[in-house]
Design goal:
Length: about 650
């Protein structure tokens, strides 16, 4: 049965089309998407010389009839769209009918395909866009497309290709993305000497994460409780049709523990209806979810899968189909933020001593190593199975799949080229990425045994999932340096930074009081007269109302001075000036307008910092007990409002291991 049709010109013109082939990875992307759209269960990608000599994608999807196979190479020939209306509700990854003709134009392409309902298959050859040969052939059902000598007829573009290693890395990264989005399908990626990825179908996303990134990654992540909710419109949006009320948004995925910090957004993967996208709105929601949990300017690793009705999202906005537009964007934003925040609060993941000890280097490790250099971190043994933070996956824009989002919107996607690596690329190799040795077969789990390893290990994998750490019932033993409380409970030995712990407690208390309109304030014995700079005056006037709701009583005294009559309870008189200038100057540095929530959080964070007990302060047992107890009751005991860790835990297991008892 013939499926493909040529789109009428009026429909074709509505498509955000563009150049789709920039490098081997773009070919792989288009062929993978076609295979997935054809319902394939197993997809094999074979490459030679980083994909420039050969890319072969073999699928067991529905295949094509003889006529369709020929039609597929016409521009705007697609089986996935019929009318302009179909563009409003795209359920497939492809829809433009552009990829195959574009790839055929710049390579030697061989298509071998058989529709499962037909006895005979078809073999079609193109060279530089010209049809060279069409023959019937005995073939298995499904489709194999071999793309040889990419850009052989476009030398200018060939010149722009990077080393084979880099190009292969981009391909590996791409296959990784699609494998994550489709855990129920098998993905294989090979070179003539190596199997780089081989993931058998997995039941759960967690299993797929484990297959691709290893156990450590799972330990560094917390799973989102699968959440779904009917779409709500903002009040300003038109009333919903009754039939629309049923439309739901579902979110699943993983997000990193606060102690896992990345220097850029390359560890963030967002999928909307299984399409990998770079979306500013969702990036913002992730950023908001980590507000007052992560320090500014570092980023989490997040895998996010959003599922929604196809007509809730417009995918026809970017030539490479990497950006989308949501119909009800505010709802999508808030729901995503809350789902991530909730996951973090439920898990309350605490940094372990080992992780924290390695923090600077592990942080360094997650930085893109300059080509030819090696990872410098000496503390964490780099595991063969890499964690996401160390999984060197190139930025989307690097593989020509994303335009840099953000210089305008403040979401500056770092375009530092992270080097690609799938789990089998050796991290321990003394040779750095970019050298051939980095692609040497992994000494640990040889590719062929990967599936076997996984089968053996997978039953153990869920057990390694992070569990809520038991910060409750801590018994203080004393202080180190009058600054860090040493405590124990059944889970192990804990060190608590007394200043940031108290800061977290006060921050949450202050915010809650502010929301309830009940911030307590404390009058100064003598009003404090402050000279403000003209900029500080401007900012102060803007936030005066919010400041008084936060327990400040500040009155103007002439053009440049103010009299501080009261400050939030707990702030010492001699801290009041510092606190006020910190708030005003902090806001001055914000170049964009901030939301009222952000403003409140900033005021609460500064107030908490100035009211909290300091380091170098001896505490008696009762005070320590009180603090540990109050900390255990907070939503986010793991980090302070500025994102620094509050507690470290040396688990009983780690202690036993260190003493060689296990
Ligand atoms: N692996 C495959 N299995 C079955 N049919 C395929 C396969 N690859 C391509 N086709 C058919 O060929 C048509 C053209 O493919 P092509 O990739 O050029 O366009 P598209 O997928 O429709 O849109 P886009 O340009 O957005 O990818 C598809 O619509 C599909 O019907
Ligand atoms: Mg396609």
């Amino acid at each position: 049965m013939s499926r493909i049709r040529i789109l009428p010109e009026a429909v074709a013109n509505k498509i955000a089309a563009g150049e789709v082939v920039e490098r081997p990875a773009s070919v792989v992307k288009e062929l993978l998407e076609n295979a997935l759209d054809a319902g394939a269960k197993t997809i094999r990608v074979e490459t030679e010389s980083g994909g420039r000599r050969m890319i072969r994608v073999i699928d067991d999807g529905h295949g094509m009839t003889h006529d369709d196979a020929l039609l597929a190479f016409e521009r705007h020939a697609t089986s996935k769209l019929r009318t302009a209306d179909d563009l409003l509700s795209i359920a497939t990854l492809g829809f433009r009918g552009e990829a195959l003709p574009t790839i055929a134009a710049v390579s030697r392409l061989l298509l071998e395909t058989r529709d499962a309902a037909e006895d005979e298959g078809t073999r079609i050859e193109f060279a530089g866009g010209k049809l060279v040969n069409v023959k019937p052939a005995g073939l298995p059902a499904g489709t194999t497309i071999s793309v040889a000598d990419l850009f052989y007829c476009v030398p200018a573009r060939r010149k722009f290709l990077k080393s084979d290693t880099t190009e292969l890395g981009h391909i590996a990264s791409l296959v990784t993305h699609y494998a994550l989005a489709n855990p129920d399908k098998q993905f294989v990626l090979t070179t003539p000497t190596q199997t780089i990825i081989d993931c058998p179908p997995a039941e759960k996303l967690a299993d797929r994460v484990y297959q691709l990134f290893g156990r450590q990654a799972l330990e560094e992540l917390v799973e989102l409780q699968p959440a779904s909710a009917p779409f709500r419109s903002a009040i300003t949006e038109p009333e919903l049709e009754p039939s629309e009320e049923k439309a739901t948004l579902t979110i699943t995925g993983f997000t990193s523990r606060p102690d896992i910090q990345r220097p850029n957004r390359n560890g963030i993967y967002i999928f909307v209806n299984r399409r990998l996208v770079r979306d500013r709105l969702i990036l913002h929601a992730i950023h908001e979810a980590y507000r007052n949990i992560l320090p500014p300017n570092v980023f989490p690793a997040t895998l996010l899968f959003l599922e929604m009705p196809y007509d809730e999202v417009d995918v026809n906005v970017h030539p490479a189909k990497i950006e989308v537009r949501f119909r009800r964007s505010q709802f999508v934003h808030d729901f995503t933020r809350d789902a991530i925040r909730q996951a973090l609060m439920n898990a309350r993941p605490i940094a372990s001593f080992a992780a924290a000890a390695a923090a600077p280097s592990s942080f360094g490790n997650s930085m893109p190593p300059a080509n030819g250099t090696t990872f410098s971190g000496g503390i964490t043994p780099a595991p063969a199975e890499s964690g996401i933070p160390r999984a060197m996956i190139p930025a989307l824009e690097e593989i020509g799949l994303g335009s840099g989002v953000g210089s305008d919107g403040g979401f500056d996607l770092s375009n530092a080229p992270l080097q690609p690596v799938a789990q089998r690329f050796s991290f321990e190799s003394s040779a750095g990425f970019g050298s051939a040795a980095a692609l040497a077969p992994d000494p640990a789990p040889p590719a062929a045994t990967w599936a076997a390893n996984f089968a053996a290990a997978s039953s153990a994998a869920p057990a390694s999932l992070p569990h809520p750490d038991q910060i409750a019932d801590l018994k203080p033993l004393g202080q180190v340096s009058s600054s860090f409380i040493i405590a124990v409970n059944g889970d192990g030995l804990w060190i608590v930074d007394q200043h940031v712990a108290h800061e977290r407690v006060l921050f949450e208390q202050h915010l809650a009081a502010r929301r309830a309109g009940k911030v307590e304030s404390q009058r100064m014995l003598m009003p404090l007269i402050l000279e403000l700079s003209p900029r500080q005056i401007v900012i102060f006037e803007k936030i005066a109302e919010e400041m008084s709701a936060n327990g400040f009583e500040v009155e103007p005294m002439g053009p440049r001075s103010v009299a501080v009559q009261a400050v939030p309870a707990g702030v010492a008189t001699n801290d009041a000036e510092k606190l006020l200038t910190e708030i005003l100057d902090g806001l001055d540095r914000e170049n964009a307008a901030i939301s009222i929530e952000t403003l409140q959080a900033k005021i609460a964070a500064s107030t908490a910092c100035h009211a909290a007990i300091k380091v170098n302060m001896p505490l008696d047992n009762t005070k320590m007990e009180w603090l540990l107890d109050a900390l255990a009751k907070t939503d986010c005991p793991m980090s302070c409002p500025h994102g620094r860790p509050v507690v470290l835990r040396y688990s009983v297991k780690e202690i036993e291991r260190a003493f060689h008892r296990i």
